[in-house]
Amino acid sequence: MSLTDVRVVRTEEPKHAPPNRAKFWLYRFDTKTVPYLLIAPFFVLFAIFGLFPIIFNGVVALRHWRLDDPTLTGWAGMENFTKLASDTDFWDALVNTFGIFILSTVPQLLIALMLANLLNRKLRGATFWRIGVLLPYVTPVAASTLVFAVFFSRDYGLANWMLSLVGFGEEQPLDWRADTWSSWIAIATMVNWKWIGYNALLYLSAMQAIPKDVYEAAAVDGAGPWRQLWRITVPMIQPVVLFTVILSTIGGLQLFNEPMLFDENPALANGGYDHQWRTIAQLIYKVGWRDLNLGYAAAMSWALFLIILIVAAINALATRRLGGGK
Amino acid sequence: MSRAPQDTPGTWKSYLGLFAILAVSAFPVYWMFVIATSNDDAVMKSPPSVIPGDQLMVNLREVFTLQDVYFTASLINSLIVALAVTASTLFFCSLAGFAFAKLRFKGNNVLMFVVILTLTVPNQLGVVALYILMGKLGWNGQLIAVIAPGLVSAFGVFYMRQFIGHAIPDELVEAARIDGALTLRIYWTVVVPAIRPALAVLGLLTFVATWNDFQWPLITLNGTDFPTSMVALSDLASGNYVVYRRVLAGAFVATVPLIVLLLIGGRQLVRGIMEGALK
């Protein structure tokens, strides 16, 4: 008997042989275990670098934790939080954060709505306009804020030059950084500039999903474009409006980059010589990495988290009422 | 009889409005370029100059040769971080998205709900603890500290699950399985080729966000010789005597890669943002 004979016999076995034991286990492994292996990297990495820090932040907030004095350890209890209650720096920063937040969110979303309404027309070069409005979105905040810092400078800034064209501040140029309100406006301008186009695209995507016959029905009732926008378009895109309101609340209350880099000396995290535009996120940075008091900084970030939750909830309710009111 | 806005042609007023907004959007970037190409006098002039000068090379040379800013290294670092984060996000999020969209396993829906919940967790608020964690790992001051927290994103998983759910019919996956293909093989030969557009979108969004990130790199890389370009920019702008033509030359260099990305992938970026909103 030769080797070839053996091979011939083998090929004559039935083609659909029952799976052997190894194959069975491989199949079982592939359908039962592999799905979990595919999602595992996300959950593991998120648990380590996303979830754990947030929980651990709570522990740090309840402890003494100073970078300049490693011997000072142990539980601080509520000390960091009670200190917070009487810390004028914190409350001042909270007021600044809210001021800038309102000055940036309201115009941002209103202008985005108008822009989306324009983009929703039948336009020549529609793609060109849509890509164009994303230029601020892709521009790094660190770069654009430095431009705006020059733009809003007292002596040779473009902002003051433009104001002088309309006869404002010719003898006494406006020192944007000196006053609370002017520094807030300057910073809010940077935030508005960056996010209007992005929000407009969010609105546009929702607007394009509105059925056309809704407008035809309204036209029969004699509603002009302006009434159509407020009575049909806005109520119908309300879920996306809610989404943008919550997004801007979360982003606006954590504002860091713009106020940092508007300062003449960013590294200090002062937010102006009298801290007139220092935000909470900036204060957390200053307390943690300039004063080296990580425990206290952690307590502040927890407080900020709670504030964000409350404000986001209030905004969500308000938006829902606005949309459902009519 | 008025028509739906989608069918109403733009009037000259709409084009004027769009043009005005576009001009305002582009002006700071243009002006960055103007100052980056000018000498000191141009910055201190009234009315301010709005025409590019011829000093670009001079300013760039100064930026790139400054001793304690490490600008060249910072650009390379930014590129390393952004590419690593983008590659990892695309790989892990498409794997998980595929599992959630097309595989049957116990807890699929519950776990997906957890992913969506994590979307709402503001990572930034854990920075203090993240800094301590990186300290324990001995990673502070190194690029790995910037890369690690960005390796996956809940949004990426969510986006991939949505796209794969729509783009790939269940029958295709079943057919491949009957042919004897294992799950990973199906991922590689069926899923990946079909989701290239979604990979492009998520890749763009991730790259832009990572390149532009400032706060966390500032905290973890502070005072090291390994800044990212955003940290290097803030170093350029720090100090008592700031040379604006130099600062904005640096800012311009750090912005150019993103403008190039916008020119190449603008269409995908627009689509990604618009799709991300609906769900």
Automatic annotation (TrEMBL), chain A:
Keywords, comma-separated and alphabetical: Cell membrane, Membrane, Transmembrane, Transmembrane helix, Transport
Residue ranges crossing the lipid bilayer per the database entry: 36-56, 98-119, 131-152, 181-204, 236-256, 294-318
Pfam families linked to this entry: BPD_transp_1 (PF00528)
Highest taxon above the source species: Bacteria
GO terms (BP aspect): transmembrane transport
Gene Ontology CC: plasma membrane
Topology class, membrane: Multi-pass membrane protein
ABC transmembrane type-1 domain: residues covered: 94-315
InterPro entries: ABC_transporter_permease (IPR051393), MetI-like (IPR000515), MetI-like_sf (IPR035906)
Keyword Transmembrane attached: yes
Primary site of residence: membrane
Location within or outside the cell: Cell membrane
Family: Belongs to the binding-protein-dependent transport system permease family.
Listed name of the protein: ABC transporter permease
Organism per entry: Actinoplanes lobatus
Classification of source organism: Bacteria, Bacillati, Actinomycetota, Actinomycetes, Micromonosporales
